[in-house]
Amino acid sequence: MSGAGLTWKRKLLEGEAVTVVAYGDSWTYGSVAEGWYEARENGMNADLIRGSWVSQLRRDLQHLNERATVHNSGKGGWTSAQGLDGFDTGVRSLKPDLLILNFCINDWRKPIPVGDYRANIERMLDEAEAAGCACLLWTSGPVSAVSGETYGWHKPLDDTAYPEPFVRYNDTLRSIAAERGLLLADAEEAIKAEWRSGTDISGWFYDSFHFTQDGHDRLFRSIRSTLGL
């Protein structure tokens, strides 16, 4: 773990003020966990989405350290390009000790070319690391798609005209994490492994690329475990 990574963990465990920012798209914002409908009716306030993995992590960290602050800077529909443009407001201004970063699903669907996607993620990581911030990447999904697995969901996304499969984007995150020596919470692979073991995950889908509460619970477990909590 890098020096920045050790610093945020030390602050957390020693009761010092520590700030975490979760930055990404709707998978970070909290679609479609418990409380999502209430948030839609109240100005899209992510803090009302009590079942999101971010809200679960906030409660967990504040149980360990009441001075821990966790900001949800997830924006539904955003790509990595929008994330890069909004980095100052969504991340830098909050002065995080730890950034938990994922953009993916909208880059795949737009589509943003994989090379541009990689460059955007790398730029955000460069900005965070220059500010002395530790970083964790995580993989979203799996998605129910015609070109691959449907996972039993009855309305898989027809992605046959997409230039790249979804996995190329998650593989990009895996590659970046390995090259930079960053923590990677591979939630997609963990959920796939659970499905391969016989778990029926068809009921976890709200649509072909958003999870309900069961999925958010798995995302939280993957991220929490990767953080060593």
TrEMBL record:
Name this polypeptide is given: SGNH/GDSL hydrolase family protein
Organism this protein belongs to: Paenibacillus ginsengarvi
A Pfam cross-reference name: Lipase_GDSL_2
All residue ranges annotated as the SGNH hydrolase-type esterase domain in the record: 22-217
Gene3D superfamilies listed in its UniProt record: SGNH hydrolase
High-level lineage: Bacteria, Bacillati, Bacillota, Bacilli, Bacillales
PANTHER family linked: THIOESTERASE 1/PROTEASE 1/LYSOPHOSPHOLIPASE L1
GO molecular function, one term: hydrolase activity
Alphabetized UniProt keyword annotations: Hydrolase
UniProt KW Ribonucleoprotein keyword: no
Entries under InterPro entries matching the protein: Ester_Hydrolysis_Enzymes, SGNH_hydro, SGNH_hydro_sf
Hydrolase keyword on record: yes
